[in-house]
Each structure stands twice: as structure tokens, then as C-alpha cells.
Amino acid sequence: MKILVAASEAVPFCKTGGLADVVGALTVRLGALGHDVCLFLPKYRAIRAASLDGGITHTIKVPLAGSSVDVGLTFLHRRGVSVYFVDYPLYFDREGLYGSAGKDHEDNERRFALFSRAVLEGAKAMGFKPDVIHAHDWQTGLIPAHLKRHYKNDPHFAGTGCVFTIHNMAYQGNFPRAALEIGGFGPEDWSSEGLEYYGQVSYLKAGLVYADKLATVSPNYAREIQTSPDRGFGLEGLLSRRSKDLRGILNGIDLDVWDPARDSSLAKRYGPAEAAVGKRACKEALQRECGLEVRGDRSLIGVVSRLDYQKGLDIALAALEPRLDRCQLVMLGTGDPSLTEMFAALERRRAGAVHFHRSFDESFAHRVYAASDIFMMPSRFEPCGLGQMIAMRYGSVPVASRTGGLADTVFETASEGRPANGFLCEPGDGADLAKALDRALAATQSAGWDGRRNAGMSGDFSWDRSVESYLALFREAAGR
Fold it and tell me: 174, 179, 420, 458: most buried, per Cβ within 10 A?
């Protein structure tokens, strides 16, 4: 198939979270299977690649707010994927992908309205006639709407289907009504059946209304967002009405990137057979690196997370602190200033037992996964989660909330042929998290610990099955 992918971030070019990991890995896997894959990304200031130094390969005119602007397209071919960067410095040559200093950029409605239209105009200019367009999250939500409203008679997109993947319903791209005209839409689109959402324009809703098929990132999350107001964020009714078009497809991880047997970031590489020895060496190395007491009898709890209310880390702090006499914590995270200060204060109070790494460091994240005995993800909600999969791949046993994709991948008891590989608690329940931590800490000293750890390491977290599910959905959207 000819597959056009549009996203606001993708590894290795630009990243704020799991969206980038998913888009980067999925496009490469599709290309490896022989599909013709074209990926469009904004050309942010943070993107650095020697192959881009050749400059703009093409200039296109892109409609915006009743006029048009000249936009550049810069090209790079990588791992079987043609990557086009939408080059408009006024909007994208700035600090941060979506904002800076803890605040969203004030013109995000313009930035991503331009990007969405540039994807379609860019595909035409480059002569790429897609069978299907795969758009991701609110930043590309206008693409399905444009296809149905403005390009329905364009022969270049005749027969083109559209799949829209929701990575997190909490991020909706809601803007004042003026965004309607900025995006190129009119009064007829201002309705509950169109782009209007509680008195605002919702870019996320545009994707949900107009895409041929919808996907989200785990089967359990697909159920949650149709039935629960605190998961659907006011759009659960629309999602329920479109249930026949919605699929929950579990994300995978890039097994070439996340492989403890080949990971150059680790003090000692290891596979499942050497996990006990390898993890012990990695743990001692990280304890020294972080200034913690080097003690094998202390369970090491790892956290690699965005610091956000969603992640439940405020609840985790209260559960963790009374247990730091029998465990240690290494945490990597950036985000909410109040949460940052809470964990910085914990580090000051419990020097020798807590290390808080307050800047994103990919190599350090790898070392946390390898060194930790327990990996904690107490999310209030979690559409899929990649951290628990990576942790299990590295032999770190997750303590996670029973929600979204965490409930699809972490099992405290063996059932239906699935071995026990972690510990679960109810989301948002600090007392239940404390009990789950106690069960996990006690289990590290039990004879069954190796079995639980090895069950995680032998889990299938590849993209293979998920890619086939996406391809089936692509064919449905394209009417094939």
C-alpha cells in the first residue's frame, strides 16, 4: 500500500512522549514490510540532521486563514521511509514543540492548521497519491476534515481512506471559534455534528467525526473512552456512536532500540538467561552513579515518566516515602513544576535512598530500566503505556494501575495462558498502591521472583501483530 503518515513528532527526529516512539517505530516497520511509506513532520528548531543541510526540496502554497503562505518541504530518506519536514520558520523555528516554559504556544491553532493543510498540499506536490492517510492526535485532526470537506472531488485523493489514531483523549486541541476560519472552515462546520465542542473548535473532534476509521492504542482504552466520562472527556457519546469504526490496537516497542542484550548504555548487557547477574551489575553501577548506598538488599524502584497529574505520581510519593527504609528510588522525569519540587524535596530528605534526574536523558532512561527491580506506573489513566513494556523487556517488574493498556499487558495472577508478570492497583487509590508496593517488595525476596521477572522478559511486545491489525484497518478505510 501507499501509506501517508502525518504526526507532530516521531523518533529519532523530535519527541515529547510516547507518540514519537509509536510513529517512529510503526512507520519503519511498515516500510520494512515493503509498503511505500511517506511521513510528514513539522520542521522544528530541535530537529538536527546532516541530511537536511541540502535545504528545501520544494516550495508549496498552503491555504491559511483565507489567504495562502509559502511553505518549504525538506526531504530525508531513512530506514525505508520517505520523511518530509514542513518548513515554516515563523511557526516551527522556536523553542519547544507545543510550548515552552510550561505554557502552550499561543498560536498552536495556526501552527497545526498550517501543518495539516501542508501535508495534503505537499502530497500533491510530491506526486504521492496515498491509498490511506494515517493521522495521529489533535495536531493532525483537521486532515480528515479537509479530505471530506475540501478535497472530496480532488482526483489526487480519489479513493484515499483515512485512519485517525487517538493516543490520549485528554489532549484535544480546543481553540476559540476564530480557529474555524483559520483552518479554512465555515459557519456550516460550526455544529455539534462538526467541529464545535462546548463553544470551541476541537481539532481532535474533527478527526473523530471525519476519519473513515478510528484507532486507539489499546483494547481496554478503546472500551474506556466509549463508556467513561473521565476517559472520553465529553466525547464518549461520539465514540460510542462510531464504535463499529473504532479499533483498540496495542502499541509495540522497537525491539532493536530496547534490547538489554545489545544495549550500549548498560554497565553489563544481558539476556533472559543472564538476567540475575546482569541486572545486579547494572544496579550497582546505577547506585554508584546516582550517589545511592550500594546495597544489594535494597530493592531499587525505577520511574521514567512525564511529571503530570495523569501519571499519579503525587499519590505515589505518599506511598513511597514510608517504605524507603527497605527500598531505593531512581526517578527520571520532567514536567509539572509542583511535582518537580515535591520529588526534589523527597530527594533532599532521603539522600542516599532517592535520586531524581530532572532533565530528559535517553541513555539514563535505559540504565534505569536495566537497574531497577521494580518499575512503577501508578497512572490515573494510561491509554497504552510503553514504559511497562520496556521495563519487562529489561527484567524490571511493573507495579501499575489497572487501567488502559496497563491492564492489557500487566497481570498479577496467571490466567488464560498468561503468566503473572507484575502487580496491579486501582487507579487513583494511594492506599491500594501502597499495598501493591508491599506485595512487590515482599515478592523480591521470594522464590517466585525469577519466574515473574522472566515472564516479563519473554513477553511479545513487538509491533508484528499490531502492524497487521493496522494494515487490516488501512484496507478497510481504503475500501480494499
Answer: 179
Domain that holds residue 55: 2-252+464-477
Whether 259 maps to a domain, the answer reads: no
For residues 235 and 197, give the distance between their C-alpha atoms in angstroms, rounded to a whole number: 9
Pairing of strands 67-78, 58-64: antiparallel
List CB contacts of 147: < 8 A, sequence separation 6 or more: 120, 133, 157, 160, 162, 210
What average pLDDT does the segment 12-27 reach? 92
Task: Tell me the three state secondary structure of residue 299.
Answer: strand
Residue 345 lies in a domain: yes
Q: Are residues 208 and 297 in the same domain?
A: no
Contact 413, 436 (CB under 8 A): no
**Mean pLDDT, rounded, of the chain:** 95
The whole-angstrom separation of Cα 122 and Cα 140 is: 14
Give the three-class secondary structure for 367.
helix
Residue 451 and residue 403 share a domain: yes
Q: Give 288's pLDDT tier (boundaries 50, 70, 90).
A: very high
The closest of 237, 240, 248, 235 to 206, measured between CA atoms, is: 235
Query: 347 to each of 228, 338, 343, 350, how far by Cα in Å?
Result: 37, 14, 6, 5
The pLDDT tens digits of the residues spanning 65-124 come to 999 999 999 999 989 999 999 999 999 999 999 998 878 999 999 999 999 999 999 999
CB 269 within 8 A of CB 278: yes
pLDDT of residue 274 exceeding 90, the answer is yes
